[in-house]
Amino acid sequence: MSVVTEGTADAARTAASGETILSVNDLVVEFPRPGQPTDFRAVNGVSFDLRQGETLGLVGESGSGKSMTALSLLGIVPAPGKIIEGSINLRDRRIDNLPVNELRKVRGNDIGMVFQDPMTGLNPVRSIGSQLTESVLRHQDVSKQEAIELAFHALDDVGIPSARERLEGFPHELSGGLRQRVMIALALINHPEVIIADEATTALDATIQAQILDLLRERLSSATMILITHDMGVAAEICDRIMVMYAGRIVETGTIEEVLTSPRHPYTVGLLSAVPKFDIRRPKLVPIPGIPPTAEDIVRGCPFAPRCRFAETDCDQRPPLEYAEDRLVACWHPRLASERKK
Ligand SMILES: Nc1ncnc2c1ncn2[C@@H]1O[C@H](COP(=O)(O)OP(=O)(O)OP(=O)(O)O)[C@@H](O)[C@H]1O
Ligand SMILES: [Mg+2]
């Protein structure tokens, strides 16, 4: 472990109101690298709070640590990766160090997950009905018959046609869009307090993507949710607040309007179109020159500096996540509104 975690947990809190449901403090997830002196930090000192009723967007390039952050919350970081530092609290209960059977209860009961590929979350060799009823029976005190009825209603509620007949069917018999609906039904069936959707619409074509987004919005308008997406347009439509991740760290966080209309971190600026008045509903993502640091790079200073057109000599020190005007930004030279007006 050669990389030092910087930035304080408190810095990642925002002043907005709402009861805190989930609280992540200085989370570090590492993957061992055989034959190398250091492990690879996929998540490097991430802290944030998720408040009741809030939809929090997590955006960033591929490999920035979004999924590993999400999987940490469910206690399912794939081996040999593991959480090596930090803590995760669900309300007042610490959940990152629970025994396996307790963690299983948290998943489904408290936190539901919708994956990008429904086949990751669904068992291909078991009927849809048996997967839904098994989950109900594991988490709720009901009879088998009641569980079947709940399964039927769960499918019906997410817009699966002929839901009763579908209970007997298998995931592969459905189209991608319907499979994603089944996955959402499975994530919601035990009424978890928090929903995590990781690229839930990415694999679908545009029309179906819009339908699934409508479903998420309609079913989850008052839910507490973390939405992971590459698509700023999707984030703009659904999220209240957004966190931008880069190389395992949060580099900027603010309300969706704040981040889209006046990005402060050069990386966020790069992610969004440089066009001054872009359409907030459909902001364009533009490619940023260069590539993110790889596992091989042990970055001492700001991990974005090699790609940053605003980098200066002081960027060889790690910038903490701190307030710059209205916004939490990890940058020595944030794009401040006051400076832009000059
Ligand atoms: N099984 C693994 N072994 C080693 N490294 C891994 C493993 N799984 C993920 N990683 C590394 O962890 C880092 C973070 O991965 P993660 O899946 O969280 O990225 P992501 O932001 O979700 O990307 P994407 O947008 O492509 O889904 C990546 O650099 C990846 O290479
Ligand atoms: Mg991912």
| Spatial arrangement of strands, main beta sheet | 6-7-8-3-9-10-12-11
The kinds of small molecule bound in this structure are: adenosine-5'-triphosphate, magnesium ion
Fraction of residues in β-strands: 15-25%
Helix content: 25-40%
Over all CA atoms, what is the radius of gyration?
21 Å
List keywords for this structure.
single chain, 342 residues, alpha/beta, eight-stranded mixed β-sheet, four-stranded antiparallel β-sheet, 12 helices, 12 strands, globular, disordered N terminus, binds adenosine-5'-triphosphate, binds magnesium ion
Explain how this protein is built.
- This protein has 342 residues and is α/β, with parallel strands linked by helices.
- The protein is 30% helix and 21% strand.
- It is built from twelve helices and twelve strands.
- The chain has helices at residues 66-74, 100-109, 118-121, 128-139, 144-157, 163-166, 176-188, 206-219, 232-238, 256-261, 266-271, 337-340; strands at 20-31, 40-51, 55-59, 82-90, 93-94, 111-114, 194-198, 224-228, 241-246, 249-255, 322-324, 327-329.
- Strands 6-7-8-3-9-10-12-11 form an eight-stranded mixed sheet, with helices on both faces.
- The longest helix is centred in the middle third of the chain and has 14 residues, at 144-157.
- The N and C termini lie far apart (43 Å).
- Residues 1-16 and 274-282 have low confidence and may be disordered.
- Magnesium ion binds at residues 66-67, 198.
List the helices and strands and how they pair.
Blueprint: E1 20-31, E2 40-51, E3 55-59, H1 66-74, E4 82-90, E5 93-94, H2 100-109, E6 111-114, H3 118-121, H4 128-139, H5 144-157, H6 163-166, H7 176-188, E7 194-198, H8 206-219, E8 224-228, H9 232-238, E9 241-246, E10 249-255, H10 256-261, H11 266-271, E11 322-324, E12 327-329, H12 337-340
